[in-house]
Amino acid sequence: MRFLPSGDSALVVEFGDTIDAEVSARVTRLAGRIAACAIPGVRELLPTFRSLMVFYDPLLIGQGELMAAIAPLAADSVAAAAPGRLWTIPVCYAPEQAPDLTAVAEATGLGTDEVVRRHAGITYHVYMLGFLPGYPYLGDVDAALRLPRRTTPRTRLPAGSVAIAMAMTAIYPVESPGGWHLIGNTPVKLFDLAADPPALLAPGDRVRFRPIPQAEWQAIAAAVAAERFRLDPEPLP
Amino acid sequence: MSTLLVHRPGLSTTVQDRGRFGLQRFGVPTSGALDPESYALANALAGNPPDAAALEIRLAGPALEVEAESAIVALVGGDTPLAIGGPAPRTVPPGRSVRVVTGDVIEVAGLRASSTAYLAVRGGIDVPAVLGSRSTFLRGPFGGLEGRALRSGDRVPLANASAPDAPERALPTGTLPKRPDTLHVVLGPQADLFTQEAIETFLAATYTVTHEADRMGIRLEGERLTHAGGFDIVSDGIAPGAIQVPGSGQPIVLLADRQTTGGYPKIATVISADIGGAGRLGPGDRVRFSALDVATAEQRARAHHRALKAALARIAQATVGMIDEAALYSENLIHAGPFE
C-alpha cells in the first residue's frame, strides 16, 4: 500500500497497479472502514480498480493527519466490511440486440451460442463505476472472449448495451459513444435519477447475466417504462 | 412565474451551483461552478446565500429579457461589464449589482480577462435540484435546465418575482478574479510514470489552451511530455485539477465535469486555491505550471479561503439594514459540501 497525493484535497491510497480481484477487495474493504470511522474532513470516497481516492477538505484536515488516520485502517488484519450483493441481470443476446455477436464469434473462433454461454456462465465482480454515471466495470471475462476494443468506436449506442473489451464486460446506462463490442442488451435501468442511490450497482457487488428471449426483453422493458419493474439483489454469503 | 427570456443563449450558458457531492463512486462527476470565487462573489453581490444557483457563461454571453416585476442581478467574470438594453439602456461596470425591471434586457458580450463569468440573480435560478444539486451536467444529461445549455426562446425560472429597491453593491477594488498566467500544482499522483526530463519540461514550458476547452477540461498544446513507459494505466480516480497526459504527450487539465475515473497517467494536480484560475482559462490563453509541496498547497488553501471570506464580508457590510449576511458568509465557502 502507498499514499499518492493528488493535489491538496484528494489522496490516493494505492494497493497495486493491475486489475486483480484481491486488490479490488482491499480497496472496497478500506472504503468501508473509512466510511465507518467518519474521519472529520473526509468528504467522499471513490473506489477504483487498484486504489481508493479519498476526497477531503484541506481546511479541516491536513494530508499528513489524514494519512496517519488511514494507515491503521489499511492493514488487512482489521475485520472486513459487509460483503456486497449478488444481482441477476436479464440480458437478451438475440441478433437484433447484439450487433457485434457474430463478429465476436468469428474473432474468437467460437459459435455465437458458445460466446453467450461463456459470457453468461460467470459471476462477475463489480470493480468500479466510472466513465458515465452508473457504468460498471465487471470482470473477469472468460479468457477465450478477450478482444481489444473496436478499432472504430461507435458514436452512439443504445442504453442497456451489454459489451465486452479485454477482460471486462460492462453495461452502458445511457445512450453514449463507445468502443466496446456489443453482444447483448438489458432492459434494466442501471442509472435512475429517481432512485437512491441513483446507480443500481456498487463497487464490490457481484453480477451474473440471465439470457432472455426477445419477447421477455420487451415485456421487462414495458414494465420498466411503466415503473412496475424492480430488480432485487440476493445477499452474498 | 418570473423568468428570464433567452433572446440569445451565448456560447455555452448553463445553470450551476456549488456542485453535486458524494456520488463520484457511482460515476457521477461533481459538476458545479468552474470558477468558485467568481461564482461566490456574484452571489454575494446579488444578495444571495453562497450556494444559490446562477448562470455560468463561457466566452460569449447571453441576452436575457427580464420577465419579472424586478430583480437584482450581478455579473462577475474578469473585467466584463453588463449592458442593460430595452427601455432604459445603460452599462453596469464590472463587479456591481444592478436592479432591473420588466422589459430590461440583460446583455453580456464577449468576456474580458476571463473565459468564465457568473450572472447571479437575487433569490437564485429556480430549477429543481437533481441528486442534491441544480448544476447542469451536459453528458448526463441532467440538472440545470433539462441537462443542457440555454437555447433561444428558453424561459429561465427565477425564485423571486420582485426584488427590494436595495442599494447597489460593489466588489472591493482589486478583487475581480482574472485569468492566471501560472497555475500551481502538486506533482503526482503518477509523476513517476514520466521521465525526469518530462517533469522539467512541464514545469519550464509555456502551454497554450486549445479550442478543445469545456467544462470537462482544457486541452493544452506545447512541448511534448514523454512517458517513462506506456501511457495506458489501469484506471484510477480523477481529482479536480488533475493534469492527465495521453499518448499525444499534450497535457489536459480536468475540471468540474471530468470523468470520475480514467486510464491516462496524471503528471500533477492543480492546487485547490488555483482551481478557479484553471476554470477562467479559455482558448488561446497561455499558462505555465509551478510545483509546490503539499504543505505549501495547504497554506495557500487557507490563505485563499481567508481572502475570499474577507472580500465577501466587505460586500455584505457595505449594505446596511438587510439580513445578517456576515454570519451567512462566515461559514466555510469554497470547500463546504455534504460529508459522507
Helix/sheet category of chain B: alpha+beta
Radius of gyration of chain B: 20 Å
Quick check: average pLDDT of chain A? 94
CATH topology of the largest domain in chain A: Cyclophilin
CATH class of the largest domain in chain A: Mainly Beta
| Low-pLDDT segments of chain B | 320-340
Separation of the first and last Cα atoms of chain A: 28 Å
Secondary-structure element order of chain A, N to C? EEHEEHEHHEEEEEEEEHE
Major beta sheet summary of chain A: 8 strands, mixed
> Helicity range of the residues of chain B?
10-25%
For the biggest β-sheet of chain B, the strand order reads: 12-19-16-17-14-13-20
Main sheet: strand order of chain A: 12-9-10-7-6-13-5-14
Domain module count of chain A: 2
Mean pLDDT of chain B: 92
As a whole number of angstroms, the C-alpha radius of gyration of chain A is 19 Å
Q: How would you describe this protein?
A:
The complex is a heterodimer of chains A (237) and B (340). Chain A has 237 residues and is of the alpha+beta class. Chain A has 2 domains: 2-74, Gyrase A, domain 2 (2-Layer Sandwich), CATH 3.30.1360; 85-235, Beta Barrel (Cyclophilin), CATH 2.40.100. Chain A has helices at residues 21-37, 63-74, 101-108, 112-119, 214-225; strands at 2-5, 10-14, 42-47, 51-56, 85-92, 124-129, 136-139, 154-157, 161-165, 168-171, 176-178, 181-185, 206-212, 234-235. The longest helix of chain A is centred in the N-terminal third of the chain and has 17 residues, at 21-37. Chain A starts with a strand and ends with a strand. The mean pLDDT of chain A is 94. In chain B, the strands form 4 sheets. Chain B has a 7-stranded mixed beta barrel. Chain B has a 6-stranded antiparallel sheet with strand order 7-6-9-4-1-11, with no helix packed on it. The relative contact order of chain B is 0.18. Chain B has 340 residues and is an alpha+beta fold. Chain B is elongated. Chain B has helices spanning 36-46, 196-204, 275-279, 294-317, 325-329; strands at residues 3-8, 14-16, 54-58, 63-67, 70-76, 82-85, 90-92, 97-101, 105-107, 116-121, 155-157, 182-187, 207-213, 217-221, 236-237, 242-244, 252-254, 261-262, 266-270, 286-291. The two termini of chain B are 36 Å apart. At the A-B interface, strand 2, strand 3 and strand 4 of A face strand 15, strand 18, strand 19 and helix 4 of B. Chain A: GO terms for molecular function: 5-oxoprolinase (ATP-hydrolyzing) activity; ATP binding. Chain A: Residues 1-201 form the Carboxyltransferase domain.
